Amino acid sequence: MNKIWITVITGFLGSGKTTLLNTLLKHPEMNQAAVIVNEFGEIGIDYDLVERSDENIVQLANGCLCCSVKGDLIDTFRDLYIQRNAGTIPYFDRVVIETTGIADPAPVLQIIFTNPMVMNHYSLDGVVTTVDVINGVSSLERFPECVKQAAIADRLILTKSDLVEVADHGEKVKDLSDRLRALNPAAPIVVRNTGDVDPGDLFGTGMFNPETKKIDFNSWLNPQKYLSETTENPFNANEADSEATISYYKDRGHTPEDRRGNDNHHHNPLIKTFCIVRDEPMSLEMLRMFLEGLSNEAGPDLLRVKGIVNIENEPERPAIIQGAQQIFHSLEFMDRWPSEDHRTRIVFITHNIDKKYIEDTMSLIERVAERTVAAAM
Ligand SMILES: [Zn+2]
Asked: Domain CobW C-terminal: where (predicted)?
């Protein structure tokens, strides 16, 4: 695959996301990365620190990427690609996107997974989420976006480790790590002091292994981490959004649909994480109906879905599916199974959708698909 790999950096305000990016931009390995920064209402790139040409650093300052300026993100992907190929900006083979602290990462992933232009030229490497050791727990308890950012991450970076009192250090890091582990069982958690990061923290965190230049199944899906049972959000959400919280969002250009009305849909963030396993292969038709059905019925609540599927008639090659909010059935196939285990395994990270609902949907679709096939014969 010669696609341009995308890393999405999320993390709440004050979690050290911008410091991390500023530090990384000084590394020579970052010269082949274009950077998209959404810095509405926040302090962005510190150009005094960055000793590089800024032609492929794009700042989107008109609103929030997850809701008000989605179209700007698509335009930016297109412009960067065209300019790269025309040689009017330095060549890059990666893009790093820094979202605002308050952004919900799922709509950003949805663009990456479903926009045809973006899908043609780019592919998601992974989502890296920063959580600071000092204020992480309180942010996670106050802001549902924070919980989503941590739940869908491929890697969690605990920042500001150096700023914790030595006496409290072990306990603080352990408490935060344990709770994050309950929320997100598979993402590696790394602990970093301020300024102590390197590009390896950002790259190859998900699907793509930069060393072998191949799909790294275990780091990407890691299904055995999800097999035991459903995990749920261990951070107690507090009551509905206060006026202060709502204006806080507005100041940051973040105006998602479901916050404009009265419903508290996304408030208590009941994030659930589980893995669906299926022994028998499924037909392409069944998979297509399953993904369409799920996208229609539960789209906004599917924060992230990823998996490999054993397709009838393709016993040697597993199909890869991934999505957020919407899952397309344009399939990619791996050259071969990554292990002896040829079962279909699909990891779901959802907002309040449980495993049983997905399993019931799958068996319903299976019966419908069988009937459709029988009727066509
Ligand atoms: Zn937003």
From this structure: 271-366
Determine the distance separating the centroid of ligand 1 and the alpha carbon of 105, expressed in angstroms.
9
Per-residue confidence (pLDDT) for residue 223, from 0 to 100:
77
Closest listed residue to residue 145, CA positions, set 351, 355, 354, 352: 351
Number of domains composing the chain: 2
pLDDT tens-digit series, residues 72-88:
999 999 999 999 999 99
Going from the Cα of 339 to the center of ligand 1, the distance in angstroms, rounded, reads: 39
CA of 334 to the centre of ligand 1 (A): 34
29, 119: one domain: yes
**End-to-end alpha-carbon separation of the chain, Å?**
38
Give the per-residue pLDDT at 233. 74
Phi, psi of 340 (to 5 degrees): -70, -20
Residue range 142-163: mean pLDDT, rounded: 90
Range of the domain at 321: 271-376
Is 236 part of a structural domain of the chain? no
CATH of the domain at 69: 3.40.50.300
Residue 265 CA to ligand 1 centre (angstroms): 15
How far apart are the CA of 51 and the centre of ligand 1, in A? 30
How many angstroms does the Cα of residue 276 sit away from the middle of ligand 1?
Answer: 30
Q: Of 204, 220, 236, which residue is a domain's last?
A: 220
Q: Which residues fall within 8 angstroms of residue 77, CB to CB, at 6 or more apart?
A: 95, 115, 117, 118, 121, 122
Q: What is the mean pLDDT of the chain?
A: 84
Distance 124 CA to ligand 1 centre (A): 20
Question: In terms of domains, do 13 and 116 share one?
Answer: yes
User: Which letter does DSSP use for residue 200 in this model?
Assistant: G
Average pLDDT on 132-149 reads: 87
The CA 60 to ligand 1 mean position distance, Å, reads 13
CA of 269 to the centre of ligand 1 (A): 16
